[in-house]
Amino acid sequence: MVVSHRIAVRYWNRQAVVNLPVIEVELVMVILRRRHLVLALVGIWLPLLSGFSNWAHGAAENPGKDLPPSSPASVASAAASSPTASIERTGAAVWVVNRSLMNAMLFRIDPATRQVTGKVALEGAPRGLAAGEGGVWISDYANDKVFNVNPATLRAEAAISVRKAPTAITTGHGSVWVINSNEGTLTRLDPRANTVLAAIPITNSVLTDLACSETAVWVSSVDFLVTRVEPKSNSVAAKIKVVGNPNVVAVGGDTVWVSNPSFKQLVKIDPVSNTATPVKIDLPIRTLVFGKGSGWLVHQQDGMVSRLDPASGTVTASFKAARDINGLAYGEGLLWVSSTRENRVLAINPESGQVQAAIEVEGGPSAIVFGP
Fold first, then answer.
1. What's the pLDDT at 262?
2. CA distance 82 to 370
3. How many Å from the N-terminal Cα to the C-terminal Cα in the chain?
């Protein structure tokens, strides 16, 4: 029997949430035999952390059938076969995506029972995750799409084509916003029509994160800028210079906060005057969320979480949460931590730092949000 082999290797560079270089290598091997096609996909992560090398997680074997890319039906194929997928649900939930290139999934976790109550199979390489404006939104970095999953039925409503390399995504001002990290553009989506409303040029550099405040959308980029976008006009209203490469943007109260891990500081931006004030914290921050009147800072490498007093700009407490932390969310009075190395989502009491529940999530859980 004659067997022919074709091997395609694709490399790309992506700005990590921690603003450190990450190389993703996707190896696709197609083996053509006499009457059938065997497709194998292996995803390898090589995080390059200063003096630190870690094989993050292996890909799991995909038991599902191949489905056409960008088909909404294929995004929700696992939901259709799940015994919990057809149940109508209401109320907020914890949503998390994994990083398995063989078996990418969206998971729904009930914050009351602290159990996984639904799964949705995903195409491509999920990166950003947001919940709001009537849907759960996942950016697919590999296929340049945004998926809209109905939170009640766990079925895909749409797969929306956007510009290149969509990563961080959020909701607000009646829209869904996603950055096209390598193109330097911000895409605005209509969550009801599932269409692109605007593609807004931000900068010629790489975009790293975004957040919505009551008055604007804020986008960070590696050219030392935080850009303010006006939702009413879809135009850039201000470019605010910061020191170092900002990697995270978050809104706490009436202030915009930006993390600068290179200088171990945060930057406070006044949305009225568009002025930036550095806040020294002596911690390189991976991600940042607000809840219960505090900011919650994830350290870059050691699995620690610190509590920030927004008024004074000081760290008031720290605790070890997990071996590693890839995502953090706040909801129902708890911190929700995703740990890729542990393959778990942890529910943590923010006052004591004690783990209240450890929920198994296969495939390396990463982005996590709390929402409807």
1. 86
2. 22
3. 55
Tell me phi and psi for residue 151, to 5 degrees: -70, -20
Determine contact, residues 297/282, Cβ cutoff 8 Å.
Answer: no
> For residue 370, what pLDDT is reported?
98
Q: How far is CA 222 from the centre of its chain?
A: 18
Q: Tokens standing for 97?
A: 């995506």
Encode pLDDT of 105-135 as tens digits. 999 999 999 999 999 999 899 999 999 999 9
Using pLDDT thresholds of 50, 70 and 90, give the confidence band for residue 20.
very low
Q: Which helix (H) or strand (E) holds 60?
A: none
Q: Which residue from 322, 327, 356 is spatially nearest to 342, judged by alpha carbons?
A: 322
Question: Which tokens hold the place of 56?
Answer: 């993050």
CA separation for the pair 161, 182 (Å, rounded): 16
Q: Which two tokens stand for residue 24?
A: 């993703």
- Three-class SS of residue 99? coil
Considering only CA atoms, which of 366, 367, 358, 371 is closest in space to residue 116? 358
Kindly state the tokens that stand for 339: 């740990």
Assess contact for 177 and 166: CB atoms under 8 A. Answer: no
- In 17-134, beta strands by DSSP E: 21-32, 37-49, 52-53, 93-98, 105-110, 115-121, 126-132
Q: In what order do the strands lie in the sheet with 217-221?
A: 207-212, 217-221, 225-230, 235-241
Strand partners for 130: 137
Positive or negative torsion for Cα 17, 340, 60, 46:
positive
